[in-house]
Amino acid sequence: EGGIGRPDYRINLPDGKVLLVDSKASMDAYLEAHTVTDEARRKELLRTHASRVRERIRKLGEKQYWKQLPVTPEFVVMYVPVEASLGAVFEFEPGILEYAYEHQVILATPVSLLAILKAVAYSWRQRTEIENQVEIAKQGQVVYERLATVLGDLANLQKHLEGARKAFNDAAN
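The structure corresponding to this sequence follows.
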């Protein structure tokens, strides 16, 4: 890897913030565990998988990707592409969530990443609605000011028309 490196994905959040996602979770041992018939070997491979996930969490925490950007949450999302593979990690590393939290890493499977992305999309919709409301308020202020000017001009015109009518009546008399 060398150096700090960079995350795989940058998800833009409102206000210029960025959510960082890394998807380099090792799956080799997990996938191999499902091809062997020997139970002892399968457990060994699953233990290796759990160990690799733990090591990846440690490395991600050390990289501190969030320090590369001025406005990003101080954590990175580690994407684990197979839901069941994270279950296997829990079997051999029951405290893995706490370990990840200590290293400022959030573990996300397809389902939880989808939930995160839906939350991001919702925040963008909320942001857009707020921006639209602010723009409507600004435009409403402009309309109000212009209407006030027109009403003032109409009142002035009414006064002049009444004066002209009076002058006409005076002249006609």
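The radius of gyration is 32 Å.
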